[in-house]
Structures are given as structure tokens and as C-alpha cells.
């Protein structure tokens, strides 16, 4: 099990909704890169909670898997 799998498991057990900053970290992206993906409409699905955006860990993982190429990434 790699580090991202561990982080995803912990996130599901505690709070499955991540902030934009947490989601970027989980994916190994800079916050600015993640914001650009969201602005372009090409990032993971997000949900508005109050005045801030939250990203469910399952949506982040599904988006990440969707972009995998080559080799066995399951």
C-alpha cells in the first residue's frame, strides 16, 4: 500500500471532505495548480459547503484514476 492509499484511508475515517489545499496536497499538486484545474473545469468534482469548496476523497481518487496512463495503476 503506497502513501496515497494510506492518506485516503485516514481521510475517509476522519473527514472525507477535503479543503482545496488538502486536496491539492493529497494529489501532490501545488495549490495554484489545483486552482487552475478547477478554474478550467478539469479538476475533481467539488461541492460547495457554506462559502468554501470541499472535495470528497472518493471524487479525488476517481478523478486521479481517470487520468492514469500506461502500466497497472489499480
Automatic annotation (TrEMBL):
Reading the lineage from the top rank, the first entry is: Bacteria
One family from Pfam that matches here is: HTH_17
- Enumerate the spans annotated as Helix-turn-helix domain: 17-63
Q: Matching SUPFAM superfamilies, A to Z?
A: Putative DNA-binding domain
- Indicate what this protein is called per its UniProt record: Excisionase family DNA binding domain-containing protein
